[in-house]
Amino acid sequence: MTLPFDIAELFWPLLLAAGSGLVAALLVMLRVLRLLESQRREIRLLKADVLTLRGAVSALAQEEVDAGLRRERIEQRLRGLHTRQDRLELQGRSEKPYAQAIQLVRRGAGIDEIMQACGLNRGEAELILSMHGGAR
């Protein structure tokens, strides 16, 4: 069988086409390798950023824990101060009538006046009068 063309005539064009294809494939591979290396660099940078952010988040979490502990201590101290204030107010209220009664005794008031002005019972008024009234 005879071919309408000579194979030897096609050798050089086919070789040139194959070589061009090979060069094109190599150029594409080089481009892909550069892109891959660029992506690897980007990944390394992102990993470094992630480590930095993890450190920052860890520091913030520790600060939050510390702030919570400080807040708890402050609240505990505030509760103690409220308790102390309530106790002092009660103490002041309970001592106030007696202090007023002593002042009345020193001014010469009688038992009935002391009882009425200070809200004391007769026994309390007599005790204050005997303790602070002196010789009458």
Structure write-up:
Helix content is 88%, strand content 0%. With 136 residues, the chain is mainly α. The chain is rod-shaped and about 155 Å long. The model has no long low-confidence stretch (mean pLDDT 90).
Instruction: State the assembly state of the protein chains.
Output: single chain
> Helix fraction?
over 70%
| Beta-strand residue percentage | under 5%
Spatial extent as radius of gyration: 51 Å
Structural class: mainly alpha
Distance between the termini: 160 Å
Query: What is the global morphology?
Result: rod-shaped
> Could you tell me the number of beta strands?
0
Mean pLDDT: 90
Short key terms for the protein model shown above:
136 residues; mainly alpha; 3 helices; 88% helix
